[in-house]
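[Structure tokenization] protein backbone as discrete codes
[Encoding] learned vocabulary of local backbone shapes
[Protein] chain in single-letter code, fold in tokens
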Amino acid sequence: MHIAVAGNIGCGKTTLTRMLANRYGWKPNYEPVDNNPYLADYYADMARWSFNLQIYFLSKRFKDIVEISKSPEVIIQDRTIFEDARIFAANLNEMGLLTDRDFQNYRDLFELMMSLVKLPDLMIYIRSSVPHLIDHISKRGRSYEQAIRIDYLTGLNSRYEDWISTYKGNLIVIDGDTCNFEENPEDFLKVTDQIDAKLFGLF
């Protein structure tokens, strides 16, 4: 079974992935951030490194999703291949940081990959406002993230909402601004109650 956690930068995806993996005994699959050879360069010069970064993420997540499809375990994934194309690459193209030529090349490769995989069994989307995202990004203190532009986060949020409004799979939406699942056990229970209802038909 494939569970996925989606949402903008700083919304709490990794935290929720870890908590749900511990709660249900699922195997976590985390976003490749710390060992990413392009990320620091990308935030310093987005126009130069955007295509390289997006291809890196696309190849890594396609490999992940193929391995997940073959695994007998329940795997919960921190960010999905769908977000790379529908959100991040499209936003970079709109901002003029990814050329039309590179974006078309990227989309052709993505569509080919999508013909070989299926949607997750459950998508969990964490919806967060830009001020909330900025607060989280600031608190976790990753040096390369401090240069993230507000208009970049705003554009991503808009694309996330467009994508999730047309998503066809099994979906749960969490309000990241009001649901403090990390520090409030009652809020975390509300999340797991929704998951139980979707996956196991409870409540």
